[in-house]
Amino acid sequence: MGSGNIRWAGFSDLIERKIRQSVAGIVLWSENSVQSDWVRGEARLAAELDRFVTVRLDDNNLPIKYRNYHSLEIFKSKDEFEKLLDLLQRKINQAAIQQKSSH
Fold first, then answer.
1. 62-72: b or e for each residue (b if 16 or more CB lie within 10 Å)?
2. What are the beta bridge partners of residue 55?
3. What's this model's pTM, rounded to 2 decimal places?
């Protein structure tokens, strides 16, 4: 393994830690990202943790595993973008309530 691979391994661990610490794992699906093993792995982890928020940036063909999730299609309308903001605000509020109740 070259030294470049060691740096990427550390980056992968960092991404995983950040997803685990997050309130929401927002996956932005585009024509390019649907082909990325990295993005698919991040999406899988966010879904496993029940933090998956899926957003389509263009009229791409989602990976089959993620087609059953509701995707906000922000490329279609401002209303879809507003729905994304509302969803994220609800997730943040829920996390704050859970944090207060655990203390």
1. bbeebeeeebb
2. 28, 72
3. 0.81
Q: Which of the 8 DSSP states describes residue 34?
A: G
**End-to-end CA separation in angstroms for the chain:** 45
Strand partners, 82: none
Q: Spell out the per-residue pLDDT of the chain, length 103, in tens.
A: 455 555 666 888 999 999 999 999 999 999 999 999 999 999 999 999 999 999 999 999 999 999 999 999 999 999 999 999 999 999 999 988 888 888 6
Q: Which of 80, 36, 77 is nearest to 54 (CA)?
A: 80
Quote the tokens at residue 69: 């999730």
Enumerate the domain spans of the chain: 3-101
Backbone φ/ψ region at 50: left (φ over 0), alpha (ψ -120 to 50), beta: left
